[in-house]
Design goal:
Helix content is 27%, strand content 21%.
Length: 196
């Protein structure tokens, strides 16, 4: 495992190199440390499933609302509401425009996918450099609490994760709030840090 500080000028380059090569990355978000891989790579997605100890669905991360519109069906009404929410601690469940391009493990019921735009300086810097679509799930074994301390992540996952982007210990978090905007009012699937 490579460990690099989130503030290191090379961190963004290394992040995308690992993602593009099919590797696994632990990275900071505005809620939890995320475990990521190229969302178009079935082999990388399989590695994440093995680390987590479960199949999907897993969320995917994009950089901003424009990129979200490239990969998901977003009505004008939904887009207007998302302007005040994203980037932020929400996962929005939407229908992907081309579901066949994504690794099947990210798809939930009805071929819908949870999309995430974290409000974290490292992630925002990363998406100024590249526009990849990255699987985003918490760093933990299924059934165990998410890890918020980079030392713990390295201790437990050093043989399975290729890169750890170290932003120090993150504060306690409930994770992102998972929202389904298909109904009015929007349905909260999982309550996290975000409030509707």
């Amino acid at each position: 495992m490579i460990r690099v500080a989130a503030s290191d000028p090379t961190a963004v380059t290394i992040f995308w190199q690992i993602i593009r090569s099919g590797g696994l990355v632990a990275y900071p978000t505005d809620t939890l440390y995320g475990l990521g891989a190229d969302a178009f790579s079935q082999s990388a997605a399989a590695r994440i499933a093995a680390v987590k100890g479960r199949g999907g669905p897993f969320s995917v991360m994009v950089g901003d609302l424009d990129q979200l519109g490239e990969y998901a069906l977003v009505s004008a009404e939904i887009a207007d509401k998302l302007v005040g929410m994203l980037p932020g601690p929400y996962t929005i469940v939407l229908s992907p425009i081309q579901p066949e391009r994504l690794a099947p493990v990210v798809e939930g019921p009805g071929e819908r996918v949870g999309f995430r735009i974290p409000d974290h300086a490292f992630i925002q810097a990363a998406y100024q450099r590249d526009r990849g679509v990255v699987i985003s799930t918490s760093v933990n074994r299924t059934g165990e609490p998410p890890l918020q301390n980079p030392d713990d992540i390295q201790k437990l996952f050093s043989e399975e994760i290729d890169l750890l982007v170290d932003a120090g210990s993150l504060p306690h978090s409930l994770g992102s709030t998972v929202v389904d905007p298909a109904t009015e009012p929007w349905r909260v699937i999982r309550q996290g840090d975000g409030r509707l």
